[in-house]
Amino acid sequence: MKKRWIMCGILGIVSESGEVSQDIYAGLWSLQHRGKEGAGIATYDGNVYHEKRGMGTVEVVFGGEVLSGLLGKIGIGHVRYSTAGGSTLENVQPIQGLFKSVPFWIAHNGNLTNTKKLRQECVKQGYFFRTTTDTEIIASLIYFNESFGFEEALYRALSRVEGTYALVVLYKDVIYGMRDLTGNRPLVYGEGRGIKVLASESATCDVLGMKYLFDVRPGEIIVMKQGSLSGAYGDQMFCSTAEAFQKQKFCVFEYVYFLRPDSIFDGRRAQRVREEMGRNLWRESAVDADIVVPVPDSGNFAACGLAKEAGLPIEMALFRSHYVGRTFIEPLQERREKGMRIKLNVIPELVEGKRVVVVDDSIVRSTVIKRVINMLREAGAREIHTRISSPPYKYPCYYGIDTYRVENELIAKRLNGDVEAIRKEIGADSLHYLSLEGLRRSVMEVPGNKLKANNFCDACFSGNYHIPLKDGIFGKET
């Protein structure tokens, strides 16, 4: 059985008055960039649950009259993408569990690292797994703690798992939201218009017309129900607040790539952080040039910061069609290549005869940047200087992004981190990555709250994995 690692968006909403399905739909739409292969909603109307899960984007899964059947003033939702082979309906979340013969639902963003051991243990005790997700491990552990109340069962289940998670759990008329002790994945709380929301990103609060109030702390559980919010400022799960912040390892790639530019986490707006990345990138790698060209949309804000620092004009010489999905999360190489032919186009008169600085946020496999450089060459660019606003992506992520499955395709790993070799392969006249120190500095230069320079997970750049990798984590048959 192969592991299924995912990167997702999660959401939970409680309403004081009206039905929540339309708000959950809008909230999931705001998180669509975090996963497009499947979506699901589960609601509770005071008597029974209602759920709809399906393959595809939010508008595909919940088209027609679907939302009208999702009754209730409380519910959770999920968008996901999966690894190759894991994109199946049974793995679409939220997934259902049972506690004392009563259903509950879980939506999860992250990755557990001791899945093999716990799955084998639960199977021996008679649990029948209906999915291949690590999320169901949590459901199974809750199931086996039926001698306690639900909240205590949830605590005890989470005390057994290792790895990363941001969770929303729907049990009857209560939603529980929590992050793991390292706070690796984001989860925020907001309220307004008579509703309360837990979501992966603060932009969801903006879309829903409410105020983003705070980030859920590492190791904290939030309990949401009608009429009150308990646990928001003090229900630490496994350690003190001070200890939790010391252990925090927030995924720095969220700031580089995943967070919407308009989202705020730890008091830092992603757009401003990306602009600082661009500024520091130019300080590390100035070159004689005529224009700055971002790779849309991922390189837009780093390019803005770089152009301001360099005093160069920025030209939107690459047109991106927004009707083609992110190439980074396409599961097949052939689909990526075909997608690139229709996703990006160059405007030749803006680059012809020019010395171009082309800016993007990262190079993972190099599919995008090779195509961009080829198009700029064909359009007559005189020189092409590639600038990347993060360090070389040399190590696979096992904490919630699926790059472990393409480990041998990571260009920085394949070429041993040799920047000159990478430059030759992608066809640029020069290539510079932002240093890891420069990346950390870029985040910290934007005023924020608790995060310090040592509070980031940068394993994909440094190889420093803060959670030990267990047997079977590498995507082998387990």
In CATH, the homologous superfamily of the largest domain goes by the name Aminohydrolase, N-terminal nucleophile (Ntn) domain
What is the helical fraction, as a range of percent? 25-40%
Instruction: Name the average pLDDT.
Output: 89
Sheet with the most strands: spatial strand order: 3-2-4-1-10-9-11
For the record, what CATH class of the largest domain applies?
Alpha Beta
Number of β-strand runs: 23
Number of domains: 2
Main beta-sheet annotation? 7 strands, antiparallel
Instruction: Give the CA-based shape.
Output: globular
Q: How large a portion of the residues is in β-strands, by DSSP E?
A: 15-25%
CATH-defined architecture of the largest domain? 4-Layer Sandwich
Termini separation (Å)?
5 Å
